[in-house]
Automatic annotation (TrEMBL):
Entry-linked PANTHER family: DOLICHYLDIPHOSPHATASE 1, PALMITOYL-PROTEIN THIOESTERASE/DOLICHYLDIPHOSPHATASE 1
Official protein name in the record: Dolichyldiphosphatase
Origin species: Patella caerulea
CC terms in the record's Gene Ontology section: endoplasmic reticulum membrane
Ranges that cross the membrane: 45-66, 73-93, 119-136, 148-170, 176-198
């Protein structure tokens, strides 16, 4: 019947003043909700770039679950702290998003500074310090070429994500610029905290009962972790293969 309230598994949804559902106020979970102009291929590509912070965060959680590396945990903790600071700044500054994007007042979050820009520039700054300071150093620059490529690629991608927020009208230019500046500063500061304050505590964290129970690892003093794990795995596999062969020959 006309004017009857809509039904829902948890109870009826109240109708609007005119007996319909037109006056109901809806809220959206904006974590992965990215819109782009219909038919705009560039906008669609940039919308996917806007989802990179989510993919990176999920990747870090997965990496921690399988690797249990202390430095990776600190990196992720820094991202969480960075997001919290962004939330605080947004609610202190309280600058709205571009009016052209929010004509109907759909967005409940503020826009200054851009969290996407802040996240990506934090990530890029931290990983740059990590590559040049913590990762093993080769004897010539050509062997370290991959570090320059990774670092430059991260900053380029951070720039694309930042531009996407302006192109898709989720933020103004100033909101994105301040997000980038904030991310760069926090990325450098957090790396200093990890390098000089937390890293000396890694051996204690890894060797404590909780650390041993959770199989937490500290690879700080291992210069080439990938090569170390490869050679260790190969040596162990060969050792076990010899034992199996010896048993069969008896």
């Amino acid at each position: 019947m006309a004017g009857a309230p809509s039904t829902h598994p948890n109870g009826p949804i109240p109708s609007g003043k005119d007996g319909t559902d037109n006056d109901i106020e809806w809220s959206a979970i904006s974590l992965t909700h990215v819109e782009y102009p219909k038919g705009d291929l560039i906008g669609k590509l940039l919308a996917w770039f806007s989802l990179l912070p989510v993919f990176i965060f999920v990747g870090f959680v997965t990496l921690i679950l399988f690797r249990r590396e202390l430095h990776t945990m600190c990196y992720l903790l820094g991202m969480i702290v960075n997001e919290f600071i962004n939330w605080v700044l947004k609610h202190l500054i309280r600058e709205p998003r571009p009016s052209v994007r929010d004509k109907e007042g759909l967005y409940c979050e503020y826009g200054m500074p851009s969290s996407h820009a802040q996240f990506m520039w934090f990530f890029s700054m931290y990983i740059t310090f990590f590559l040049y300071i913590r990762v093993y150093k080769n004897y010539n620059w050509s062997d370290d070429l991959w570090k320059y490529i990774v670092s430059c690629s991260c900053f380029i991608i951070a720039g694309i994500v930042s531009y996407s927020r302006v192109y898709l009208a989720y933020h103004t230019v100033s909101q994105v610029l301040w997000g980038a500046v904030t991310g760069l500063i926090l990325g450098a500061l957090w790396f200093a905290v990890v390098q000089f304050l937390l890293t000396p505590l890694f051996p204690y964290m890894a060797s404590c009962p909780i650390g041993e129970f959770l199989m937490i690892r500290d690879s700080t003093l291992i210069p080439h972790v990938l090569w170390f794990e490869y050679t260790s795995s190969r040596t162990e596999a060969r050792s076990r293969q010899r034992k199996v062969t010896a048993r069969k020959s008896q």
